[in-house]
Amino acid sequence: MTGRTGRGVVLEEFGEPLALREFALPPAPDRGMIVACGYGGICGTDLHLKQGHLPIPTPLVLGHEGLGTVRELGEGATHDAVGAELRPGDSVMWASSIACGTCPPCRLHREPTLCENRRTYGVNRSTLDGPELSGSWADHIVLQPGTTVVKAAEGVDPLAAMSLACAGPTVVHALYERRPVRLGEVVVVQGSGPVGLAAAAFAQLAGAAKVIVIGGPAERLDRAAKAGIGDVHLNIADAADQEQVLNEVRAATGGQGADLVIECAGVPRAVAQGLTLARRGGTYLVIGQYTDAGDTLINPHQIVYRQLDVIGSWAFTGAHLVEYVRLLPTLAARFDLASLVTPFPLDRHADALAAVADGSVMKAVLTS
Ligand SMILES: [Zn+2]
Ligand SMILES: [Zn+2]
């Protein structure tokens, strides 16, 4: 096992260009495995990590979403999370985080997504702690014992599987644990990035009567419409008069407002708007404000007058990734997920990040 190496894209200094570095590839850890990555997704969160907006240790190999091929199984690593036998050569996806199992949220509140000590590939696994290859923007990743690994959905294009790799499980958590979409509901989704499209697609799958997507720019909404995601698409990003667009949204709901409004915009001021788009007695589900982007003004009377349930949802666990993978054949049959993805080779990571930052791609995936 000597002489093996792997390459990974490393964040060395906040705000500086990333570097493709070579590292020794250790043997597979007991009950863990080495995976040849193949696909490493770029998530909006990664742009914030790169700029130092979140307190993370550096240097580290980035990438918390991945799909790849099992190269080597460690002692005792025999089955995936749903009990399917694993062999080298199998295509797998893995959950980004491992919850500690002992902190109050894990042990007492039954909410491992809120674990105070979770270890996350590509986020808080510094190369100094080893193994260095602990992110998915790499040709290999070392998966530790306790990682939720699941065989990739058979017959689904890996790019389709990667289209909602982080957004899909995030929305599964929100809709399964926080507030489900009910049959025949009118749903408004704020935001047309991957999280917004995941929310819209799942709402359609769950039997919503109508899904109205508000977002922008126009190309993003066109891409969503072409992929079959959402029934009505309204561009608020490029609108001169936002209030007029909000009135169009209300009209599209039938005039009363939506049964459920799902915030996936990540922009604080979207919250004040979203509160006014729900019907009286409706629900406002807030998923998009994952990064602290600051304060905003809201009118709290809207919450009481409309008697809203306002619900937050944070991240996901391995169980939600497994559910996303289970749903992928159904999702991919109904929506053109692969069309949302632009692949970039690993050594073009800078171009890929620039394209995500300027919004010219919906979803960038590094391939190796
Ligand atoms: Zn992510
Ligand atoms: Zn914990």
Automatic annotation (TrEMBL):
Catalysed conversion reaction: 2-deoxy-scyllo-inosamine + NAD(+) = 3-amino-2,3-dideoxy-scyllo-inosose + NADH + H(+); 2-deoxy-scyllo-inosamine + NADP(+) = 3-amino-2,3-dideoxy-scyllo-inosose + NADPH + H(+)
E.C. designation(s): 1.1.1.329
GO molecular function list: oxidoreductase activity
Pathway where this protein functions: Metabolic intermediate biosynthesis; 2-deoxystreptamine biosynthesis; 2-deoxystreptamine from D-glucose 6-phosphate: step 3/4
A Pfam family: ADH_zinc_N
Domain of life: Bacteria
Enoyl reductase (ER) domain mapped to chain residues: 15-366
UniProt-listed InterPro entries: ADH-like_C (IPR013149), ADH-like_N (IPR013154), ER (IPR020843), GroES-like_sf (IPR011032), NAD(P)-bd_dom_sf (IPR036291), Zn_alcohol_dh (IPR050129)
Cofactor or coenzyme needed: Zn(2+)
Top enzyme class: oxidoreductase
Keywords, comma-separated and alphabetical: Oxidoreductase
Protein family membership: Belongs to the zinc-containing alcohol dehydrogenase family. DOIA dehydrogenase subfamily.
Protein name: 2-deoxy-scyllo-inosamine dehydrogenase
Organism encoding this protein: Streptomyces longispororuber
